[in-house]
Design the sequence.
C-alpha cells in the first residue's frame, strides 16, 4: 500500500501501535459488510438492507449478532502490508476487505 492509501485506511479505522505492531483497526465491520438498519426507540430493528437489498429484520439481527457475539475484528497490518481478521468467517472477511479496497479506490 502506498502512503496515500494508508492515509485513506486511517480515515476508515483507527491506528494502533505497540511493541513493534502497527495496525489500523476497522471498528465498523457491520457497516463495511454492507448491513444498514434503522431502529425503533426501543432499540429493536425497524428495517434493514444488506448491500442495498431489503432483508428481514430477523436476518439483519442474525448478521449483526454473527459479528458482535464473536467479537469479530478486521485490521490492516502496516508492518506486513496485509489485511488480517480474528473471529470472523473467511467469506465475511473477504467481503469486508473488498469493501475497504473499493472505498480506497473510490477516494482516488
Sequence:
Amino acid at each position: 500500500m502506498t502512503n496515500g492509501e494508508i492515509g485513506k485506511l486511517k480515515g476508515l479505522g483507527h491506528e494502533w501501535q505497540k511493541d513493534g505492531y502497527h495496525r489500523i483497526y476497522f471498528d465498523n465491520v457491520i457497516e463495511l459488510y454492507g448491513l444498514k438498519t434503522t431502529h425503533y426507540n426501543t432499540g429493536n430493528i425497524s428495517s434493514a438492507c444488506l448491500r442495498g437489498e431489503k432483508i428481514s429484520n430477523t436476518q439483519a439481527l442474525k448478521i449483526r449478532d454473527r459479528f458482535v457475539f464473536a467479537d469479530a475484528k478486521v485490521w490492516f497490518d502496516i508492518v506486513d502490508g496485509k489485511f488480517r481478521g480474528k473471529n470472523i468467517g473467511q467469506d465475511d472477511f473477504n467481503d469486508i476487505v473488498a469493501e475497504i479496497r473499493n472505498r480506497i479506490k473510490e477516494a482516488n
